[in-house]
């Protein structure tokens, strides 16, 4: 697998330090995924409880949660509201179908209803990766049902970057896909009491909805705007491993003058 090139310990130290500060939640199949729970590798204790015994299977990204599209997912509880912050959600996934549903939820922290606060990422039955954001200032924002399809039985790295002063930008395998303006929500506190679900969502009445059918190898939730360059790097083979490893392990102190910042400025 291709790994990022770190030329000295000091550069690695800066990368990991920043990753620890920005990672709000991180679930990696190789770290704490078993038959009952999915440990939050960020160190923030947002452990997901596995519902209805999804299998843990081998994949090209390592162990992955296999969901049946009916009632299997991970529930981390009422955590990781977006609040007033920017946010980036990155996931490594494989979709195998829709069954009777017209969408499949990958990550959701809101109810699936017009005007509901929070965020959610899903795949429409058209195969398009789509993001929903509900805010108090302007109602509900949804990226266009267009662009790159991920309904092809292959692994994809998908990302949604919520820049509160600008827009939501989605990416598929490191390529910019769709966007929608959310600048009206800058500084607006967006919270709800829904639980954070990986592999499912909540309908307008709170009932479980659009459960994932396929595999999820990892999810990262980051309280900042991840740059396009970093998104492209994370979509490469080894990208997920480098993010999770460096986000949870802090090397010994060294020369800090040279740093690689994963979530900082850059094209």
Tell me the count of domains: 1
Q: What is the molecular shape?
A: globular
CATH class category name: Mainly Beta
* CATH structural architecture: Sandwich
Topology summary:
Blueprint: H1 9-22, E1 23-28, E2 37-38, E3 48-51, E4 55-57, E5 64-68, E6 73-75, E7 87-95, E8 103-109, E9 118-124, E10 129-135, E11 139-142, E12 155-162, E13 167-172, E14 175-181, E15 197-198, E16 201-202, E17 208-209, E18 213-222, H2 228-234, H3 239-248
Antiparallel strand pairs: 1-18, 2-3, 3-6, 4-5, 5-18, 6-15, 7-12, 7-18, 8-9, 8-15, 9-10, 10-11, 12-13, 13-14, 16-17
Helix pairs in contact: 1-3
Structure description:
Helix 1 packs across helix 3. This protein has helices spanning 9-22, 228-234, 239-248, and strands spanning 23-28, 37-38, 48-51, 55-57, 64-68, 73-75, 87-95, 103-109, 118-124, 129-135, 139-142, 155-162, 167-172, 175-181, 197-198, 201-202, 208-209, 213-222. Strands 1, 4, 5, 7, 12, 13, 14 and 18 form an eight-stranded antiparallel β-sheet that branches. An eight-stranded antiparallel β-sheet has the order 2-3-6-15-8-9-10-11, with no helix packed on it. Strands 16-17 form a two-stranded antiparallel sheet. The chain has one domain (9-248): Sandwich (Jelly Rolls), CATH 2.60.120. By secondary structure, the chain is mainly beta. The model is unreliable at 1-18 and 247-267 (pLDDT under 50).
């Amino acid at each position: 697998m291709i790994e990022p090139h770190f030329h000295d310990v000091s550069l690695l130290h800066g990368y990991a330090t920043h990753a620890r500060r920005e990672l709000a939640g991180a679930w990696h199949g190789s770290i704490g995924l078993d038959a009952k729970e999915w440990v939050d590798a960020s160190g923030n204790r947002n452990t997901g409880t596995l519902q209805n015994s999804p299998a843990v299977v081998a994949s090209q990204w390592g162990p992955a949660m296999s969901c049946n599209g009916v009632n299997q997912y991970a529930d981390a509880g009422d955590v990781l509201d977006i609040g007033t912050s920017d946010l980036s959600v990155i996931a490594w996934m494989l979709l195998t179908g829709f069954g009777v549903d017209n969408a499949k939820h990958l990550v959701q922290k809101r109810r699936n209803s017009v005007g509901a606060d929070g965020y959610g990422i899903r795949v429409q039955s058209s195969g398009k990766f789509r993001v929903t954001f509900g805010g108090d200032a302007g109602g509900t924002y949804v990226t266009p049902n267009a662009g790159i399809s991920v309904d092809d039985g292959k692994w994809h790295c998908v990302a949604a970057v919520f820049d509160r002063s600008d827009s939501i930008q989605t990416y598929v395998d490191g390529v910019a896909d769709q966007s929608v303006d959310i600048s009206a929500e800058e500084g607006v506190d967006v919270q709800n009491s829904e639980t954070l679900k990986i592999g499912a969502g909540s309908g307008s009445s709170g009932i479980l909805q659009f459960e994932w059918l396929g595999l999820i190898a990892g999810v990262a939730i980051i309280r900042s705007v991840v740059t396009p360059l970093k998104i492209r790097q994370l979509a490469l083979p080894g990208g997920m491993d480098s993010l999770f490893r460096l986000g949870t392990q802090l090397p010994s102190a060294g020369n800090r003058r040279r740093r690689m910042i994963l979530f900082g400025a850059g094209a």
